[in-house]
Write a structure and sequence with these properties.
2 domains; alpha+beta; 17 helices; 468 residues; Rossmann fold; globular; Glutamine Phosphoribosylpyrophosphate, subunit 1, domain 1
């Protein structure tokens, strides 16, 4: 079902403890599995960097033997979703032997100017082993570290050259650093263990290892993790942030706390607003599993229309391949989803989901429900129409694939054969999240981006004046 959903590309973890760090990283990554389900990797430091990374889910990549082999009191971890499953060298953490020692990095985000940076580094004589922007970061960092001799200063100088989104974790000469871009586009938080400290993309990763949430890493902040303390350095002071709104609506787990708000709270509020602003006479509120579940619950609570799961998701099918014929492709979706016919037959259904990107899957779902003899189907979507690409790490970069970029709401409703269709507005979304408009990244909804993108409108632009 996720082939028609925006997909987050990865999650990161770092830990510095008084014992072995690998078990803490392993369980944290498991809690972040929803952020990347194709590749997992862990790197630890013990008189050098040891790294294991493979295709597969976290528990498939790491067994007791692998975890026990990753000795060291500090390390980093990464889970990845990849549009194209690339060669091993591109898996993260990326580890590079440099003139200043081995450096490992895990990255959540996208560096827009990575091709330019790679060409500049090649001109200076750097030979690349991977196709990644992370290797370019390491070479920039190594050059800066060779010049300054100070890791924090080198990291600061590196970030001045990066344009894009990044939450980063590093092993640098046995030290652990984490940093977040100056707009805080991607999430990152700090946790306290009895025997050390950890950072992770979401607070649920801290919960998994009984770490206490300390706070979010601030936009433009570098944090060094030690087993006994953390050291913070602010390297940029933006007037506004640009947190990705999709984190609260879809990407992050509902039980994650980000900037003081749980995803669950935001999604319930979105559902309630949908019910208040776009009511309809109906017999049943039904979520599209799993993404629409909390939104639908909020709609039911506010509208007093009974909530029931008329669609059931098969969670045990794993990856499916592309069928050669259209009729087989249409049948393959039934492997993933099925209707509970007695709940739907003869009923007026409010079908609730978090977003529509391409529109292909929801069209098939509507047809399923029609085939179960639903009387009416009214769709309510907890995210405004997505009209522009994301350049900061979400898998929706082709404007032509976005159904709302070329069609009106009425045209989309007709396309997917719904009796009615309503989307939350940008204003209602911002109010549901509870953050100022100017502190959120809304580029995919407003066509105005927080960072200058060639051919796109910019809301506010990165400047060296941000840096201290």
């Amino acid at each position: 079902m996720d082939n028609d959903k925006p997909i987050e590309k990865c999650g990161v973890v770092a830990a510095a403890v008084s014992g072995d760090a690998a078990p803490y990283i392993y369980y944290s990554l498991w809690a972040l599995q929803h952020r990347g389900q194709e590749i997992a990797g862990i790197a630890t430091f013990d008189n050098g960097i040891n790294c294991i990374k493979k295709r597969g889910l976290v528990h498939e990549v790491f067994g007791p033997e692998e975890i026990s082999s990753l000795k060291g009191t500090c390390g980093i971890g990464h889970v990845l979703y990849s549009i194209k499953l690339s060669k091993y060298e591109n898996f993260q953490p990326v580890v590079v032997n440099t003139s200043v020692g081995d450096i490992a990095v895990g990255h959540n985000g996208i560096i827009i100017n990575s091709k330019i940076l790679r060409e500049e580094l090649k001109a200076k004589g750097h030979a690349f082993v991977t196709d990644t922007e992370e290797e370019a970061m390491i070479y920039i960092l190594a050059d800066e570290l060779s010049s300054t001799g100070n890791v924090v200063r080198a990291l600061k100088n590196m970030t001045k050259k990066l344009i894009g989104s990044y939450s980063l974790v590093f092993i640098i000469n046995g030290r652990i650093f984490a940093l977040r871009d100056e707009y805080g586009i991607k999430p990152l938080c700090i946790g306290k263990l009895d025997n050390g400290y950890v950072v992770a993309s979401e607070s649920v990763a801290l919960d998994a290892i009984d770490a206490k949430l300390v706070r979010d890493v601030s936009p433009g902040e570098i944090v060094e993790l030690k087993s006994t303390s953390i050291e913070s350095t602010m390297i940029a002071s933006p007037k506004n942030t640009a947190h990705c709104v999709f984190e609260w609506v879809y990407f992050a787990r509902p039980d994650s706390l980000m900037d003081g708000r749980y995803g669950y709270e935001v999604r319930i509020e979105i559902g309630k607003r949908l019910a208040r602003e776009y009511p309809v006479k109906a017999d049943l509120v039904c979520p599209i599993p799993d993404s629409g579940r909390t939104h639908a619950l909020g709609y039911s609570m506010e509208s007093k229309i009974p909530y029931s799961e008329g669609l059931m998701k098969n969670r045990y099918i794993g990856r499916t391949f592309i069928m050669p014929h259209q009729e087989m492709r249409d049948l393959s979706i039934k492997m993933k989803l099925n209707t509970v016919r007695p709940l739907i037959e003869g009923k007026r259904i409010v079908l609730v989901d978090d977003s529509i990107v391409r529109g292909s899957t929801i069209k098939k779902i509507v047809q399923f429900i029609r085939n179960a003899n639903a009387k009416e189907i009214h769709i309510r979507i907890g995210f405004p129409p997505i009209v522009a690409p994301c350049y900061f790490g979400i898998d929706m970069t082709n404007r032509g694939e976005l159904i709302a970029s070329a069609k009106t709401v009425d045209e989309i409703a007709k396309e997917i054969a719904a009796d009615s269709l309503e989307f939350l507005t940008v204003k209602e979304l911002v109010e549901s999240i509870g953050k100022p408009y100017d502190d959120l990244c809304l580029g995919c909804l407003t066509k105005e981006y927080p960072i200058e993108i060639s051919g796109e409108r910019v809301r506010f632009q990165k400047s060296l004046d941000l840096y201290k």
